[in-house]
Amino acid sequence: METKKSIFSRSVLFIARMLMLMVLFVFMPKAASAQKFALVDMDYILKNVPAYERANEQLNQVSKKWQAEVEALNTEAGTMYKNYQNEVVFLSQEQKKAKQEEIMKKEKEASDLKKKYFGPEGELYKKRESLIGPIQEEIYNAVKEISELRGYSLVLDRASDSGIIFGSPKIDISNEVLEKLGYSVGK
């Protein structure tokens, strides 16, 4: 059986929680209405920045070149394996072992080259950072300047899969960002 003291303390706690909720509901709309939001479409902005298109083209060319190098090594390893399969019955144990090691060495060489070019910290990543990083930084700085000038608390990218279902074109600052970067846009 509960004592009068525990019933009283639970009642006080309940009342305190209710008061806190009421205060939140009263002041939350005022705080939320003071917030200003904007949208940008990064895909649209990037498509209108010629330097980005040139950088992407460079990345595609170097990627194709590197991919061809990796595929050449893989093809060479595959040919070595087929030749080994055809000759295996005529080879001694030592010769078999030597051929297998050669094939594995060639496969590892191809794997290492692929990792060097396309790995998480590979050459393609570094090239992308050096070509596209400055463009992204410039766009970020333009968005930041516009946000500070207009008092935006939050700028969302409508092109990303962030779950934006609708965004009024009135709050989309993509063309303004392009103009800030020095690109003319057809409105």
Topology:
Blueprint: H1 4-33, E1 37-40, H2 42-47, H3 50-87, H4 93-118, H5 123-150, E2 154-157, H6 174-180
Parallel strand pairs: 1-2
Helix pairs in contact: 3-4, 3-5, 5-6
Overall description:
The chain is mostly helical and 187 residues long. It has 6 helices and 2 strands; from the N terminus they run αβααααβα. The chain has helices at 4-33, 42-47, 50-87, 93-118, 123-150, 174-180, and strands at residues 37-40, 154-157. Strands 1-2 form a two-stranded parallel ribbon. Helix 3 packs antiparallel against helix 4, helix 3 (50-87) runs antiparallel to helix 5 (123-150) and helix 5 (123-150) packs across helix 6 (174-180). The model has no long low-confidence stretch (mean pLDDT 83).
Strands ordered across the widest β-sheet? 1-2
Can you write the helix and strand succession as a string? HEHHHHEH
- Biggest sheet architecture: 2 strands, parallel
* Gyration radius, rounded: 31 Å
How many strand units? 2
